[in-house]
Amino acid sequence: MRLKDKVALVTGSSSGIGRETALLFAAEGARVVAADINAGDGEEVVGQIRAMGGQAAFVHADVSKAGDCENMVAFAEETYGRLDILFNNAGIMHARDDNAISTGEDVWDLTMDINAKGVFLGCKYGVPALRRAGGGSIINTASFVAILGAATPQIAYTASKGAVLAMTRELAVVHARENIRVNALCPGPLHTELLMKFLDSDIKKQRRLVHIPMGRFGKAEEMARAALFLASDESSYVTGADFVVDGGITSAYVTPE
Ligand code: NAD
């Protein structure tokens, strides 16, 4: 059991990466607090964890709201006595996110509020809890688009993930002597609802696939396994990293036929 006796808080845990990570962390012995705006699916994840003999609890939290973030951290400490792992994973990719000319301010603001401010608020309330536990691991979900420019524009999303990456490095440096590690998980294009809704035609999917050396979308479970490494003591000397798990997309100049 790689997370025995640890308490982990996972945001965006009702779907995709967060869901798979909550299940995997629990299977590895962690007591999991599953946080999301979608209570129905979140309770279902918690039920699945309990059915396999694990411990988990759901808390409703909109990560763009300070009060909700304060509450989800307090809930973790009240329910399980401590917090060791914080996975700031919740994020959106808005259907009307496009290039700088056509993207509305409302789309920009909402995307930045959830994807970037959500990570800031998670850390604002999470870091003091990790300090109280004597240290811990923070994982922030960024994206490969924080590293590469995408030809399919999504200006607000890209900017928000750049913010997550930059924030992660500073957090890692500032809190390194407190035994708190902070890393960014940078997934490549995944076969989850978030991206499949955005790439809503075969042509759009193909335009993305052609750049991935492995020739396929990644799976949420593959991100969960990377998050597990970053959460566990196996990554004890890893902090401030852009942890890229992307089928090779950020290494490719030309992909093989
Ligand atoms: P998903 O849509 O399957 O899951 C996202 C979850 O976040 C959902 O359960 C949703 O209810 C929740 N959520 C949305 N807004 C929220 C809010 N304000 N507060 C709390 N929860 C909220 O998406 P996913 O693919 O699992 O994405 C997870 C993370 O991975 C996101 O940060 C996303 O940007 C990032 N990511 C995804 C891909 C991809 O290709 N899918 C690639 C790179 C990075």
Describe the protein's topology:
Elements: E1 7-11, H1 16-27, E2 31-36, H2 39-51, E3 55-60, H3 66-80, E4 85-88, H4 105-132, E5 136-141, H5 155-175, E6 180-187, H6 193-198, H7 202-209, H8 220-231, E7 242-245
Parallel strand pairs: 1-2, 1-4, 2-3, 4-5, 5-6, 6-7
Helix pairs in contact: 1-2, 1-8, 3-4, 4-5
Describe the overall structure.
With 257 residues, the protein is α/β, with parallel strands linked by helices. It has a single domain, classed as Rossmann fold. It is 45% helix and 15% strand. It contains 8 helices and 7 strands; from the N terminus they run E-H-E-H-E-H-E-H-E-H-E-H-H-H-E. It has helices at 16-27, 39-51, 66-80, 105-132, 155-175, 193-198, 202-209, 220-231, and strands spanning 7-11, 31-36, 55-60, 85-88, 136-141, 180-187, 242-245. The protein has a 7-stranded parallel beta sheet, with helices on both faces. Helix 4 links the parallel strand 4 (85-88) and strand 5 (136-141). Helix 1 crosses helix 8 (220-231). The protein is globular. The relative contact order is 0.15. The model has no long low-confidence stretch (mean pLDDT 96).
CATH architecture: 3-Layer(aba) Sandwich
β content, as a range?
15-25%
What is CATH's topology name?
A: Rossmann fold
Helix content bin: 40-55%
Summarize, please.
This protein has 257 residues and is of the alpha/beta class. The protein is built from eight helices and seven strands, in the order E-H-E-H-E-H-E-H-E-H-E-H-H-H-E.
Protein traits:
257 residues, binds nicotinamide-adenine-dinucleotide, 7 strands, alpha/beta, globular, Rossmann fold
